[in-house]
Design brief:
Elements: H1 15-18, E1 24-30, E2 36-42, H2 43-49, E3 54-57, E4 85-90, E5 96-98, E6 104-112, H3 124-139, H4 150-156, E7 160-172, H5 181-187, E8 194-195, H6 212-224, E9 229-234, E10 240-245, E11 248-249, H7 250-271, E12 273-276, E13 290-296, H8 324-336, H9 341-344, H10 350-353, E14 366-368, E15 375-378, E16 389-392, H11 401-417, H12 447-455, H13 460-465, H14 467-486
Parallel strand pairs: 1-6, 14-15
Antiparallel strand pairs: 1-2, 3-4, 4-6, 5-6, 7-8, 7-10, 7-11, 7-12, 7-13, 9-10, 13-16, 15-16
Helix pairs in contact: 3-7, 3-11, 6-7, 7-11, 8-11, 12-14
């Protein structure tokens, strides 16, 4: 992988010219569930707050995705502090125009504590930014005496790179229905929705033709919206497509993954199609995944996960071409993964996907080109040196991609700093995840189990993210668990 290309810089001085012909601007932040929350404002208002930000009601961190207040009020937003305003500051580097809304300008915002100006602990953009900054300050210094020269440290830190892959179902209302999808589902079971394609056929060239304008519309709109798709095809399942986003710098990738979902949902409305990023919409077929590919390149484009030559004495032969940094990074993820599961599998439904025998990882496992393991190592001799990377396969399409990427970076940095060694042997070709030969620990089987491990006093999550974030995010998952405990279903 070569160094990602940068977009032209937008500055406070260039803003008036950039928005010369506009009358309005959209701004949007990302809540803890990875959902955009924003507003439309006049251009004059936007220009007046572009430098220092504006007050934004903190209640978006005090309720769930259905705007229900958390059962247990959390520190950031509660009755005691009057559901105070927090500071929202536009990130000028995120400028793009919304093609399906008359090219209205859009800027993403980050949230900060009033008074101190510190990043809000629950702001997922801030959490990922902090994870990157910790790499810049600490993560690679431990390697300076090893395989990295001192001169390369400052340049490579700019290029922590990633790409996101999403598999997701898409549905249409029955032809005779005049209802909205939301209303329809209050009166009918999910199975009453019609998939936009029938049967199981991955990589079909003909099935997208049934919804050709929608299919090509998403591809072209993502290109115009600066969240370009690298590949786009049907996957195995009724109405299932997979999008692999163009790789890039890791903070931008987190934003682009959120914006991709925004594109899919917005165009879906226009075509009467409902994209579903729920981890497991239906029983008996694979769920919706949200895989993340991560690598590190230096300023010249050299992939620093690639060893350079074969290590015939590697502890495991699968590691023969993975650098020492890559090995420590992988070891860190494997060691900490059980403690951050709510960040990559955040809902009750997430754990319906993470079951045996449906192409989903259920253990702390890894392997060279192993598509069932929690982490798939992509490296020579199966791939080119420049393509060497880790594919973290545990996350579902329902997860907040910024939290997933922050978790991967934080655990990887911990592994590099502590020079961790990989303890569990790889899964070989033909060895099944969760099978008799899999020596990896079984990952949590429910959100309740994952939550208990996440919030415990000595969890790795507290070590790498701090108590404030863990207490808040843990509280939001506690709310999800209680809703499930109180639900009466037809089971």
């Amino acid at each position: 992988m070569s160094k990602p290309q940068s977009s032209p810089e937008v500055t406070l001085d260039s803003l008036p010219k950039l928005l010369k012909n506009d009358e309005k601007v959209k701004v949007a932040g990302i809540d803890i569930d990875g959902i955009l929350r924003g507003k439309l404002m006049s251009k004059d208002k936007f220009l007046s707050i572009a430098a220092d930000g504006f007050g934004f009601c903190s209640v978006i961190f005090g309720w769930d995705m259905h705007d229900r207040s958390y059962f247990r009020e959390l520190k950031i937003s509660n009755q005691g502090n009057g559901y105070r305003d927090i500071i929202a500051v536009p990130d000028l580097s995120t400028f793009r125009r919304i093609p399906w809304e008359g090219n209205v300008p859009l800027f993403l915002i980050s949230f900060f504590e009033p008074g101190t100006g510190d990043p809000l602990s629950a702001c997922s953009r801030g959490l990922l930014k902090t994870a990157v900054e910790k790499w810049e300050k600490h993560g690679l210094k431990a390697m300076a005496g090893g395989e990295l020269s001192k001169s390369s440290i400052m340049t490579l830190l700019l290029w922590l790179t990633a790409t996101a892959e999403y598999e997701f179902h898409q549905y249409k209302l029955p032809p005779d229905s005049r209802s909205s999808v939301a209303r329809f589902l209050t009166e009918n079971p999910v199975n009453a929705l019609t998939p936009i394609t029938e049967g199981m056929f991955g990589y079909s060239l003909t099935r997208p033709i049934h919804n050709q304008d929608y299919y090509y519309g998403i591809f072209e709109t993502c290109r115009k919206f600066d969240c370009g798709i690298e590949s786009w095809h049907t996957e195995s399942g009724p109405g299932v497509f997979e999008a692999a986003l163009e790789y890039g710098e890791i903070k931008r990738m987190g934003d682009k993954a959120v914006l991709f979902k925004y594109v899919a949902k917005s165009l879906g409305i226009q075509f009467g199609i409902t994209p579903c990023f729920m981890a497991k919409p239906r029983q008996g077929i694979p769920g919706n995944s949200g895989h993340m590919h991560v690598s590190i390149v230096d300023d010249s484009g050299k992939n620093l996960f690639y060893r350079g030559s074969k290590d015939s004495n590697a502890k495991f032969s699968d590691l023969a071409y993975l650098s020492d940094m890559g090995r420590h990074f992988l070891a860190g993820i494997l060691d900490g993964l059980p403690d951050v599961m709510p960040m990559v599998a955040p809902t009750v439904n997430s754990y319906k996907r993470l079951v045996e025998n449906v192409w989903a990882p259920v253990t702390v496992s890894w392997g060279l080109e192993h598509r069932e393991a929690a982490i798939r190592l992509i490296a020579p001799p199966n791939a080119s040196a420049k393509a060497t990377r880790l594919e973290v396969r545990v996350g579902g399409a329902d997860a907040n991609p910024l939290l997933v990427l922050a978790a991967i970076l934080a655990l990887g940095r911990r592994g590099v700093e502590k020079k961790m060694e990989i303890q569990v042997p790889p899964l070989g070709q033909g060895e099944q995840v969760g099978g008799n030969s899999d020596q990896g620990v079984r990952l949590a089987k429910s959100l309740k189990e994952a939550h208990a491990q996440f919030i415990r006093k000595d969890s790795v999550a507290r070590e790498v993210f701090g108590d404030e974030f863990v207490d808040h995010f843990g509280g939001t998952r506690e709310h999800e668990i209680r809703l499930w405990d109180e639900a009466v279903t037809d089971w």
